[in-house]
Amino acid sequence: MALPANYSVVPVFGRYIDFTGAPMQGTVTFTPSQRYVTNPGADVLIFSAPLVATLDETGAFSIDIPATDDPDVTPQGFTWTVTEAFNNRSGRSPFSISVPVSTAAPGIDLVTVAPVLPADEVQYIVTSLDGMTGAVSLEGKYAPLGEDGKIPAENIPSISSGVTSVNGASGVVSLGAADVGALSIAGGTMQGPLNLHEEPTDPSQAATKAYVDSAVEGAGAPVTSVNGQEGAVVLSASDVGALGSTQDLSDLADPSLARDNLGLTAIATASFGTGPGDVAAGDDSRITGALQSSANLSDLPDPATARTNLGLGPAATLELGTTVGTVAAGDDLRFAGALQKTANLADLADAVTARTSLGLGTSATRAVGTASGDVAAGNAPTAAVTAHTAGSDPHGDRAYADGKFLQLTGGTVSGNVAVNGNLTVSGIGQVQFARKTADESVTSSTTLQNDNHLILPVVANATYTLFLMCIFSGATTGDIKFDWAVPSGSVLRWSDQTGVSGLHSDVDVYSAPGGSTQVAFQIWATVVTSSNAGNVQFRWAQNASDATATIVRANSSLQLTRVA
Question: What whole-number distance in Å separates Cα of residue 27 and Cα of residue 54?
Fold first, then answer.
């Protein structure tokens, strides 16, 4: 599904490479800062979703990003956070961009774009301060702070009016405990710290302690004992049902139940040993049925069965040697009947039979030379070539003609050459011929169509002469028109029997005699091909649409002769 048609998108693109010139691989992700926007015109609510662009093999990407100020959506002015993630290294720190509707083509190049600061990081220029504008001076209006973060005393203005009364008293004020809601202590003012567990020596402290003791005695529910103890109570871990940290769990009420709660089995209380119920150590050699590494498999109860289980054959227990029942090494020269590489096949039992087995002919043992029975080299002189008999060519690289051998790749034949059978020529001098083997008709159509039979192939960068004999019949209204199809870049220049000439794309027209009478026309042409090979194709149709068929008759023919 696509975004609504009224929501504008802007192309965003970029390309990343490293200092070696290698393209980066990874992704660029665009995440909108707005959770959703509304599009009243399209009657749709559009929720946030990251858009991911994958770098191509050149390190480039291009993606369409919805505009951040499109007037058809609300709210406007949000941003897109860009996150670059590469496979072999990290990208830049995520940054934000705006995507305006008015962005000019080709779009936003992420390589040169300036990131947009989030709203909470935007800095503003101060245009006024405390109602003042222009060149603002704070001298005499604000006190600077000292190194301790406080206003120095010398910067504090003098107080024009001091305290005139305290708690309703004026003049030289003396406050008692009752004036400030404090505890009244008989005997004077208490000085120094007070320890309620000892008898104080200071009269003022003694009065305070007596007052506190009286208050404690008058409490409604004083504590008289702790856990059954009175006086100076000291509680141990066991007094409150806790485990002592120095007891190493020796103070557990029921160790067996504790082990059950931990999920331990009976083996947890067993000892290392060799007796019944003991636990054997992991390296205990007395574990029943285990093979010991120090025994080197000598403690196997049945070595033969072990070899069978390993898939070893009888040779596994044989020794290397030269006698019966021993195993010969791979390089043992005493293998019976084996050819030795140092003999260079001199130890073959029958060299003639070996050559026959290899499919070699009698020429394999002949020498290269010019004498009778010798094999002539490919570059042998004429005398050696003419010495061959007319009936055979042991090399297979020459053709017999006029009593001599002619090289298959070049050479000249003096005199007549008689060819029994078909002659196939490729290249200059090649003649191709196509004959129409059946009638072909077109009714009520002026659309040029390919003839089913009159088509011949041509190669690239060649020149041909063309001859067409077209036999046809048709109504005097329909007549016949034709042109030619050739490979791209080829030029076909034709001329007909009346002297009219044209190119392959030019249409020529001939009148039909009417009825079933057959007439013919002839076309001569030169075809020059370019770098494209293909076919030369005769195309034809009715010149005027007519219900009576125009028919190109069987035995019409097309001939191409390569001249260059």
Answer: 4
Tens of pLDDT, residues 191-239: 555 565 667 776 656 666 666 566 556 555 555 677 667 766 777 766 7
> Can you give the pTM of this predicted structure?
0.33
CA neighbor of 549 nearest in space, from 436, 438, 437, 444 = 444
What three-state secondary structure class fits 210?
A: helix
**Matching residue, tokens 């002026």:** 446
What distances in angstroms separate CA 252 from CA 70, 240, 245, 258, 376, one per listed residue?
A: 75, 14, 12, 8, 111
Please report the DSSP string for 80-100 in residue order.
Answer: EEEEEEESSSB-PPPEEE---
d(CA 423, CA 431): 10
Q: Are 549 and 542 in contact (CB under 8 A)?
A: no
DSSP 318: P
% the chain with pLDDT above 90: 46
| Stretch (H or E) spanning 261 | helix 255-261
Question: Buried (b) or exposed (e) across 500-535, using 16+ Cβ within 10 A?
Answer: eebebeeebebebeeeeeeeebebebebbbeeeebe
398 neighbors 384 (Cβ within 8 angstroms): no
Residue-wise pLDDT for 307-317, tens only, equals 999 999 888 89
DSSP string, 508-545: EEE---STT--EEEEEEEEEE--S--EEEEEEEE-SS-
